[in-house]
Amino acid sequence: MELIEGGAAVLAPDRDDAAFDAFVAARLPHLLRLGRALTGDEQRGADLVQDALERALVRWRRLDEPEAFVRRAMVNRSISVWRKVRRERPLEALGTHTSSEVVHDRPADHELLAAVRALPPRQRAVVALRYYEDLTEAQTAEVLGCSVGTVKSQANRAMLALRRQLPTYTDREETR
């Protein structure tokens, strides 16, 4: 397995490359979907996945639960980036993006993604893990390092905020 470090290719010594490669092959589509859900953007989501996988590779032999580690790394990094962006730009700018950034099958998906992106980072992480990754409340709590009660309350707050922001979206979904 080669890593790119400072522009140069470096062979990672003494790793179980086959196991790591198998993990990546099996989980990459799910991780990319989670990355997109956490960032609201396909490219930033892919960057988030790559960063988390690089961190996992360095620790690969010591990881008991690689998927949990990668998910947690993705959530932590997305929250850190969100906080940094929030300090650097006005809050109103967070929900804006160009139409070329995200491609959806339905126009309402654009509205939903924008609403999810506007959620606070913890709520966005809970929504991404529970509804995009289909994790249970207990699994989500484990990934986020919090209690099941916290996951429930954050999910409830997120869903209330989304319903307030998207009343026409929920009406359309209920008529399908």
Can you put this structure into words, describing what you see?
- The protein is mainly α.
- The protein has a single domain (2-174), classed as PhyR, sigma-like (SL) domain (Butyryl-CoA Dehydrogenase, subunit A, domain 3), CATH 1.20.140.160.
- The protein contains eight helices and two strands.
- The protein has helices at residues 17-39, 42-59, 66-88, 107-117, 121-132, 137-144, 148-165, 167-174; strands at 2-5, 8-11.
- The chain has a two-stranded antiparallel ribbon with strand order 1-2.
- The longest helix has 23 residues, at 17-39.
- Residues 1-14, 89-107 and 172-176 have low confidence and may be disordered.
* CATH secondary-structure class: Mainly Alpha
Q: What is the mean pLDDT?
A: 78
**Gyration radius, to the nearest Å?**
17 Å
Number of strands: 2
Give the CATH architecture.
Answer: Up-down Bundle
Number of domains: 1
The name of the CATH topology is Butyryl-CoA Dehydrogenase, subunit A, domain 3
Based on CA inertia axes, which overall geometry fits? globular
Class by helix and strand content?
mainly alpha
Going across the biggest sheet, name each strand in turn: 1-2
Distance between the termini: 47 Å
Ranges where pLDDT stays below 50 over 5 or more residues in a row are 1-14, 89-107, 172-176
Give helix % range.
Answer: 55-70%
What is the string of SSEs from the N terminus onward? EEHHHHHHHH
Per DSSP, the total helix count is 8
Q: Which percent band covers the strand fraction?
A: under 5%
